[in-house]
């Protein structure tokens, strides 16, 4: 992948979600992958970037946001207290007026937020993915991108547009394609079936909202005689490429189908609570069945944060509140936020700090009063329950420090500039509502 070799020295290091902490550890990486972990520099190490963690600096695997709509930073704090259908009408009014330049600035703001809070990669579902790809490349972050398929589209033309975009990213060391079909209710079923075939053909994720609301489940059963996951299975769209988002209303027998298919489930706890979708995401049962579970923030309009540490804590607390016991541990949510997200992205060996893994590392500063006293035996607890993404000191993607104490002021200045552009856009278009969703991709929309 190129770039300078990296040598990282930390007093405390958490190699993976369920691992014991390591003390006084050196990590050495070349060409974007970790080559060595030990207590002294490896023989033959090349000169390059050296990072010495401060006394309370803790290294851990980077976070991967397995479901978001990053350009919705534009709509952060926008009609937050409206009921779902009114909220959507307000969103759709704005989204039908989006430009690539606006999506670029919204994406740049989001990418800077993510790397400032320890996230190395994300799976995105939104419009004009070229604009988001530009922002991701500028800041050296991993992303899986593609146009969202939704609305009154020609399903085959829509999937072909998604194929075209995914192929345009082939060979990119950090970016890759994803086939984004909004849902079984907002896209033609032909697009669902054809989209999964395209994902298999291209070797990319098939990313879809599933069983988010009770209404969705009831309508699928009424219209098609099947629950949403059953419907995906009948369409040939449930398999190892499937990344199924929300699943708060998934049935127990559907969970068995997900396991058989080796699909991924993505939990978005904050968004589900904010939008009052109710239901229960069966995290413990899914993990016990061996299903890959990942964590997502959803979009900044329905969260409103892209902070994966905050999301992990929220997810853990919600799970315990739902189960009435403590069977779900900090390690479960850290696993979902790291290795689970890496698997969803198709990132080989991501989510752990070990030889051969991608050199995707976050360093947190746990010297703040809210994280103390700190010891190796309470490290995972301090990370999950006390720290936030705002405690991030370094975010390292493929061995490249993309967020550091030295570049923070410059990055945040760029974020502020983009935020000003977004406010100008909203002022120019004014308020409004539109009860019909946008159509995407535009080239595949039917006339009228």
From TrEMBL:
Cited Pfam families: Amidohydro_1
GO molecular function, one term: hydrolase activity, acting on carbon-nitrogen (but not peptide) bonds
Start and end residues of each stretch annotated as Disordered: 428-448
Keyword Zinc-finger in annotation: no
Amidohydrolase-related domain boundaries: 59-402
Gene3D superfamilies, alphabetized: Metal-dependent hydrolases (3.20.20.140), Urease, subunit C, domain 1 (2.30.40.10)
Keyword Transport: no
Keywords, in A-Z order: Hydrolase
Name of the molecule in the record: Putative amidohydrolase
Lineage, broadest ranks: Archaea, Thermoproteota, Thermoprotei, Desulfurococcales, Pyrodictiaceae
């Amino acid at each position: 992948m190129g770039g300078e070799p990296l040598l990282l020295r930390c007093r405390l290091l958490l190699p993976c979600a369920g691992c014991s902490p390591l003390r006084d550890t050196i990590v050495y990486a070349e060409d974007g992958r970790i080559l060595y972990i030990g207590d002294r520099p490896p023989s033959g190490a090349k000169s390059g970037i050296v990072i010495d963690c401060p006394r309370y600096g803790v290294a851990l695997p980077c976070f991967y946001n397995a479901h978001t709509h990053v350009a919705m930073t534009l709509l952060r704090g926008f009609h937050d207290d409206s009921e779902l259908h009114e909220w959507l009408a307000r969103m759709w009014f704005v989204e039908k007026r989006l430009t690539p330049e606006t999506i670029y600035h919204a994406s740049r703001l989001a990418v800077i937020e993510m790397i400032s809070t320890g996230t190395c990669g994300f799976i995105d579902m939104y419009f004009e993915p070229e604009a988001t790809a530009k922002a991701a490349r500028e800041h050296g972050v991993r992303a899986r991108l593609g146009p969202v398929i939704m609305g009154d589209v020609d399903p085959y033309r829509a999937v072909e547009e998604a194929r075209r975009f995914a192929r345009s990213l082939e060979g990119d060391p950090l970016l890759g394609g994803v086939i984004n079909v909004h849902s079984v209710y907002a896209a033609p079923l032909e697009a669902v079936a054809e989209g999964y075939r395209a994902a298999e053909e291209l070797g990319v994720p098939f990313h879809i909202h599933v069983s988010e609301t009770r209404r969705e489940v009831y309508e699928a059963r009424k219209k098609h005689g099947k629950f949403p996951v059953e419907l995906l299975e009948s369409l040939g769209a449930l398999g190892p490429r499937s990344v199924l988002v929300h699943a708060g209303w998934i049935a127990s027998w559907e969970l068995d189908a997900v396991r058989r298919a080796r699909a991924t489930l993505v939990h978005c706890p904050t968004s589900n609570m904010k939008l009052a979708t109710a239901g229960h995401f069966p995290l413990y049962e899914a993990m016990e069945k061996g299903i890959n579970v990942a964590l997502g923030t959803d979009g900044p309009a329905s969260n409103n944060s892209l902070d994966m540490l905050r999301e992990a804590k929220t997810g853990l607390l919600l799970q315990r509140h739902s189960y009435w016991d403590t069977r779900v541990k900090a390690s479960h949510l850290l696993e979902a936020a790291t290795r689970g997200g890496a698997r969803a992205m198709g990132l080989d060996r991501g989510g752990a700090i070990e030889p051969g893994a991608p050199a995707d590392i976050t360093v947190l500063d746990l010297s703040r009063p809210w994280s103390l006293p700190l010891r190796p035996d309470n490290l995972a607890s301090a990370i999950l329950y006390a720290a936030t993404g705002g405690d991030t000191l370094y975010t390292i993607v493929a061995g490249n420090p993309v967020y550091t104490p030295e570049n923070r002021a410059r990055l945040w200045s760029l974020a502020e500039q983009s935020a000003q552009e977004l406010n100008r856009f909203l002022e120019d278009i004014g308020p409004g509502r539109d009860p019909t969703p946008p159509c995407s991709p535009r080239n595949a929309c039917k006339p009228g």
